[in-house]
Amino acid sequence: MTTAAEEQEDRERAERWNAYLWEPGGCLRNKLGINNPFELPLAEYRLRAVRQGELDRGEVDIPRTYDKAHLQAIHKHLLQDVYDWAGEFRNVDTSKQGNAFVPAHLLDKWTGKVSAKVRDRDWSTMSREEFVQSAADVYAYLNLTHPFREGNGAAAKVFLNHVAEMSPYRLDFDRVEKSEWYAASDAAYPEDITKSTDPDPRKLYAVFDKATVERGSVVRADPELAMALELQSETYAGVDESEQLDIDDKRPADHAVLEAEAEAEHQA
């Protein structure tokens, strides 16, 4: 039997979840006024592709701090035309195909783990094998974190491309079939999350090996810039760490497929 406090918590959880939607169980609220959950991913992709092109051509300066602010700046730029919450971490818990992502109240902690995995390595001197394994490690943790309500795949790949700038390699995600990519991502999920919350990056080695391409110039990280920008991280909206939710992501399956295809088509 549930208590009054538990019932109140459930109501508040549902309210937070539904705040992202036009109506309960419906389409994500968006700036385009689209209320069809199958139409939205295609419109989102078209607008995001334009913003992606601006990033690819170097027309937008996103500081390479490899932290929460970096991720949020990428996401905000990519999805600024579609969602009011672009660049903000989710305040609800989500899962996909039965696999739960990091709870909302732990997102700051887990993006800190991702940042440490980037900063604790010398990417400029890596062999190809070291790069493949290191990039897979960063992505495995970032994918499990899944910090945004939508658009995690696109933001994560831009982030990985920024990481790769510090190395003699680049990532060409078009070299990997989307079925391979999603199978590897699923396989990297913790085998038994009750025993360990750490993903298994080894399951991603093959797809990162396929995506890794030799590249010439290397961009080195600026630790002083990273420290200065970290002090300004409150510029980007965060989450209330007192909240822990457990509502699953109820997106229609066809919606997820359309979004996956759109993301896989454009990433380079």
If you had to describe this structure to a student in words, what would you say it looks like?
It is built from 10 helices and 4 strands; from the N terminus they run H-H-H-E-E-H-H-H-E-H-H-E-H-H. Helix 5 packs antiparallel against helix 6 (152-164). The chain has a single domain (4-266), classed as Fido-like domain (Fic-like fold, Orthogonal Bundle), CATH 1.10.3290. 37% of the residues are buried. The protein has a two-stranded antiparallel sheet. It has a two-stranded antiparallel sheet with strand order 3-4. It is mainly α.
Q: What Rg, in angstroms, do the CA atoms define?
A: 18 Å
- Major sheet: 2 strands, antiparallel
CATH architecture: Orthogonal Bundle
Strand segment count: 4
Strands ordered across the widest β-sheet = 1-2
Beta strand %: under 5%
| Uncertain ranges | 217-226, 232-268
- Given helix and strand content, the structural type is mainly alpha
Straight-line N-to-C gap: 52 Å
Count of spatially separate domains: 1
